[in-house]
Write the structure tokens for this entry.
Amino acid sequence: MLAVGLVAVLAVLGGAAYQLAGDSDGTPVGAPTTQARAVPAAESPVATTPPPVEPTPTPAATPVVEGKGLGTFTTVQANGPVAGKGETLRKYRVEVEDGIGIDAATAATQVQNILADKRSWTTDGKNSFQLVASGSYDFTVKIASPETVDKICATAGLDTGGEVNCNVDRQVMVNVKRWNTGSPKFSGPIEEYRALIINHEVGHRIGRNHLGCPGKGQPAPAMMQQIYGLEGCVSNAWPYSEAGKYLSGPARP
């Protein structure tokens, strides 16, 4: 009887050991015994990733080309007093090309102040100047883009190369690049270089020709092409000195 009982106990223990090792289907002990049901393909959950959100297209901005002239001009609607006592009164207009970012009224005031300065051409005692908006006039000061200056100057056979100014027919053409940035050859504030532009080109209008440097360390004549070099002279924007002396030099083509 004792042997039979021992065999029974061992049988029970062996069965428990088998259960601890695992079920026949490989399910660990303690795991749910319910078998997983095969889910038909139609019921299979599909892992979906939300489509990327496309950014809303931004309307293309209209490109702005700084200093791009439109080919049309605004004439300053202003009349100024007569500057100087010369018997030859030269009336002039100021026009600014549209699109180059220059305020026409401000530019006209600057031109007017330059020509009225005692160091400018009124000191010759022959010429006087007056800003006008309409009626008869001797010349027009036109501030324009390099492209427009080149086009107008070329009508007189002049090659300004997008860089320099010119005097053609009744037009004093001012390159806005020079008006805004001056010249690397000119030592002085931009206001002084603007004075040089006006004095030089208006000088041509009243019959003055190019001059060279009179000597090292001396003021460069206003009629000298200072943008090409000073030849030892000192930058200067005015035809006359404070004392009323004409600043001349050797004749140049």
Summary: Residues 2-21 form the longest helix (20 residues). Residues 73-207 form a domain with the Collagenase (Catalytic Domain) fold (CATH 3.40.390). The radius of gyration is 45 Å.
